[in-house]
Predict the 3D structure of the following.
Amino acid sequence: MLEQLAEALRTSRGFAHKRDIAAVLPQLAPTASATVVPNGDDCAVLPDPAGGGGHLLLAIEGLVQDFVEQQPWFAGYSAVMVNLSDIAAMGGRALAVVDALWAGNAEQGREVLAGMRAASERYGVPLVGGHTNLRAASSQLAVAVLGRAQRLISSFAAQAGDRVLVAVDLRGQWQGEAPFWNASTVAPAERLRGDMAVLPALAEAGLVDAGKDISMAGVLGTALMLLECSGMGATIDLARLPRPAGVPDWSDPDGAAQRLRWLAAFPSFGYVLSVRPAEADETIARFAARGIACADVGTVHRGSVLALQLGDARVPLWDLAQQPFIAPQLESRRAP
């Protein structure tokens, strides 16, 4: 069962989309002289010209075409939401959002824009401009966000011996048949803003310096990207992962499809963190105080393999030494 699950993840759409990054990174100019961290993190990081040792964060997300065409309002909402999550994942607070929208007509564009405006208002981050084309052959959407961080959380900072923590807001529901776990659109705006502030507060308190937000590669694909950037391996116990009440536990032989859907899910609020053991309990407690599930699910170790464990069974999900995931050769394995 464990090997079948691993193979299903390796061949999933989320893994495939993230692996496309590997074809692009070698064509980009090295960023070492311009940014604080190399390509591969959730945001580009620039020195804050205001001084004080802080950082400006710049992120952008493009939405897959079928998502924009089938669920235009939610695609617009999600485009803002996932960018804000990228900023939070690096210990930052978002300042402003811009968009680039292509639609076939004004009606198509209206729904997308309404979703973006709703997210902007609920999270309290202004949508300050962008680009619009209402005469396109197909719907396309990209959104970028600017933020600021005092202390960074980075994909390049995981260390051997760290605890792997997974934090997910389980107070939601599936978005139709799509692999999206929506704990945002029906949540109170005040709660959304407070929850988004947890990550920068953890960074500023010195509790967390390594992590990544859970993306379309799901929780395990996200962990894999974090490990690749840091040059580490890890073992994750699947039974300890947070899951919604409707997802069967691992003792149910008929729950394989529901468990796979959850492992591949793109949650509206979800993070994989690599935390020093002495800081793990306090980090978990801070999420719990906000009503967010957070669990210690494994250990970071030296090596190149992300392994999955279930009871006495253990299988490798991916060996980064044999097959890179998002980058054939990252510019650096660790931020300075």
User: Anything to note?
Assistant: The first helix runs from residue 2 to 10. The chain has eleven helices and 15 strands.
